[in-house]
Design brief:
By secondary structure, the protein is of the alpha+beta class. The protein contains three helices and seven strands, in the order H-E-E-H-E-E-H-E-E-E. Helix content is 26%, strand content 26%. The strands form two sheets. Strands 3, 4, 5, 6 and 7 form a five-stranded mixed β-sheet that branches. It is globular, with a radius of gyration of 27 Å.
Length: 178
Amino acid sequence: MNRTKRLIWIVLLLGIVMVAGCGTKPADDAESGRTGSGQATEQNEAWNEITIKLYYTDEQMETLHETTGTIRYKDDQEKYIRALEALTDSEDATLYPLWIGLTVRDAAIDHGRLTVNLDLADEGRLGAWGEQLALDALKQTLFQFAEIDEIEILVGGEPVDSLMGHVELEHPIRRQAP
């Protein structure tokens, strides 16, 4: 019996030593949000999260359909970029994005005018009706932000007459009175 008790104590002690040896690593990585010297890093920056209206089309590309989505961003510039990027992919299998192939280079707002600089890949080019729906989706998505009165669209840093060759772009696109 004595031998059994000793064996139990040895097993318990070995278990305690093993658990203590596993310990935790020093707090100097992104998971902790702190550096080795204890200073906070940018990982702790606050993210904003909002639910916005997004616009997609149906399988026949007949009309726009409104849905909602959530975007996360740190500042206003990023908010507009994330809103536009949300138009490139639909979570609803029955709704189709009109902005496939869209890359937003940057977006900046100045006195109510949002200037968006983007690139559009060839696979994102649509016919005349699709281009009109895509522009309507872009306008309705961006004009839901009260601070935006006008949208200036640039492609590769330059104003263009048309995004896909069918619909003439206004420079700038102005919010319509309700």
